[in-house]
Amino acid sequence: MPDTTTIESLEALRLEALRELESASGEALEVWRSKYLGRKGRLTQVLRGIVGMPPDERRSFGAAANTLKEVLENAFADRAAAVGPKPADTGLDVTLPGRRPLQGRLHPVTQTVRDIAEALTAMGFQIVEGPEVEHDYYNFTALNIPPDHPARDMWDTLWVDRVDAEGNPRILLRTHTSPMQARVMEKTKPPVRVAVPGRCYRYEATDATHEWHFHQVEGLAVAEGITFAELKGTLYEFARRIFGPERKVRFRCDYFPFVEPGVDMAIDWKGEWLEIMGAGMVHPRVLAGVGYDPEKFTGFAFGMGVERIALLRHGIDDIRHFAANDLRFLSQF
Ligand code: YSA
Predict the structure, then answer these.
(1) Which residues line ligand 1 (CB under 6 A)?
(2) What angle do CA 250, 264, 187 make, to 5 degrees?
(3) Residues 142-152: tens digit of each pLDDT
(4) 282 catalytic residue (yes or no)
(5) Is residue 1's pLDDT more than 60?
């Protein structure tokens, strides 16, 4: 058996291995790698034998053997790159452009809710949220709309299939965010200034400007000495922040049982007016109902439709696009 523990034997191994490698290709390449560098390969055996050598020889021989390992590994890599399988052979074309991963983003209605919340927060309103499944007391009675009052017909209501002791349904999907007016005032001493974003539901036929489920943002400000001029000023400022200073705004008298006086606000849309919110001065009966003294405190409230605002801002022609879940529409925002 030849002595493999001398520098000369390493040199002989190097020459032999490189000569063989020069003509190796295809499967012979792997045979070569295994013969010299594999687990039972010749060089590997040499390296394993180093531990049994006398210490003074071990250092210089070990260094030479490791250098040879590096030389053979590099030579193998060069040869494999020159004659080994090309990417095309494996069916993989690395020059093809990559596929861009689909990037998620916020729904345009969510974006609009956030923009509205940001504008109102900057104007001093605090954001609060409330339940979508509501008691009829908060949705109607606390808002000066007692049971059997004809004003209940203003909101086509989706009732939850549950009745009270008298056989009347009392639980509903909230038709507007206004129930939060009473919920907030019940728990807070004046002054209050809150904005309530949330989803609402109505048993309504749909068309280009009406959905059966949509979002509103409610606003409520109550303190001593608040006037109608402050309501108007607040809503003008809000419209300026959301639609810009050029967009035309219209106020008209309107009726809501929980305000006196009441108004609605519309924005110009395709040469017409599109109503975006109802508003008014909080009715003294609503204030008294939550324990506020209506002789001392006054306030204003408003409730705006988020989908309508998104529609106006983006020039969309039909509100039903928002819930249709069509990526061709959603990916524009
Ligand atoms: C009025 C006075 C206040 O002091 C406070 C709030 C209000 C608003 C009241 N709660 C309300 O819901 N009035 S509303 O029925 O006229 O709706 C307000 C806004 O919600 C509308 O101007 C519209 O922008 C939107 N909206 C109403 N029904 C809708 C709708 N958006 C889409 N689809 C529907 N079906």
Answers:
(1) 176, 178, 202, 204, 210-211, 214, 216, 256, 258-259, 275-280, 301-305, 307-308, 319
(2) 135
(3) 999 998 888 88
(4) no
(5) no
